[in-house]
Amino acid sequence: MRAVGTVLVLVVLATLVATGARRWRIPAPSLLVIAGLAVALIPGTPALHIAPQTIALVVLPPLLYASAEEMSLRDLKIVWRPVAVLALGLVLASAAAVGVLAVALTPLTAPMALVLGAVLASTDPVAVTALGRRLALPGRVQTMVQAESLFNDATSLVLFKVAIGLAIASSAVSWPKAGGEFFLLAGGGSVIGAAVAGVVALIRARTTDPVLETVIALVTPHAVYVLAEGAHTSGVTAVVVAGVVLGRSGYRLTDARIRLQLQAVYSVVVFLLESVVFAIIGLELPTMVRDLPTGSGAWPLQALALAAVLIGLRVLWVWPLSRVVKPVEGAASWRVAAVVTWAGTRGVMPLAAALSIPLLDDDGTALPGRALVLVLTTAVVVFTLVVQGLSLAPLVNRSGLALEPQDTAREQEHARQQIARAGLDYLDQLADLGAAPEAALDRVRLALDARLRHSLAQDDADQGNGDAPFLQVCQQLRHEVIAVQGTELQGMYDSHQISDSTRRQLQYDLDLEEFGINSGR
Questions:
Q1: Which of 186, 207, 282, 386 has the most crowded CB, counting CB atoms within 10 A?
Q2: Average pLDDT, integer, range 75-82
């Protein structure tokens, strides 16, 4: 009962803080971590211990899935080379640098220092997505930092398993075996994710019940994760691949009503999970510090040094890469490098990995250094979320990479005009063929010319007592026009005329219009 009460209090606290963050235009993860730290330091606050399975199974899958669905597959095809370099090379280099520094600065053994390096090596997709959601970054830059954090799991997970094997058994490292394990984790996870996504797509294409569709969408990331982990592959990679595949084809699988409902439900789920998990990070740090053995008082300086090394190494790695690959045409390389570097925060996944470190080694004795690894990991996560999170928006604005609101509005207005013209052209074709009553064509054409939904709704109300077959013809025409506009919108996106954010916004507008037609029946 106490656990249930704690969760409810966390939900209320996190919701209040996240709501304030939106009002004050402060990144929610940063403010949530600070709030969690503040609450944990209040005398009498009970110690918080979260099982690693809770984060890995309950929290991570839906957040990863939502992040993967938001990613633009079109932009990913353009930036996959730098993403691969960051997801492989930078992870290995970061793990090695952190391991060497940890041996020099902390009492950790070499195997446990390597464990710490593997835990902190990869950026976190949950934190990166949450921090970047309100930043007006160009699509390719956003995709680069988001895809890197989504696809570096296999690399860090292999390193983590190798390091844990060294720490608990002092066994020799078989690098050919480790390489095979990497391909099993990444390749196997990708295959399972794509296969499950295909099955889910077939089911959703034949389902018209909104409740069942919502349940399928909520269960999918957990099912993918469990299946992949049960097959000893990467559950995270499987969830990411499934999210990317289904996010690409989701608009074809369901109608407007179901898409709107799914978007509303998933927005609530993601908001609550993100709010609670970032608050937990702040709450857990004081508890972990109390569990440290004596002689570990230098952990704040050690964590600060580790964070500085991670950021410095990222600068050295990203700078030459940005000079070779420019996600934004005409942008100075240092601007891209600065933003990509500072967006590489740590978050939920490193914490989940650190919590999964075994308590005992093969001899049955307590694993030395585990408590310090937990504290250093959490401290680095807190540092990156607070320092980088609070300063990322000002950096993006000063870099000149942020998309101006008027530019985004102009692109969306141009796209609206183009899809409206596509709808008018379709009506002209029907008129030439005599395939619909002229009065119905004129009525739908007038609505397209105006592009004002409230005028169309008033028109429906004024003629609500008219001829029922005539109204049905008008509604059917409007459905057909919306389908034509959706096809035109996707074609504009595929031909790189509009950004992914514009495509999503206009598809949402079309869904609202179609839902309004259905509601008026």
A1: 282
A2: 82
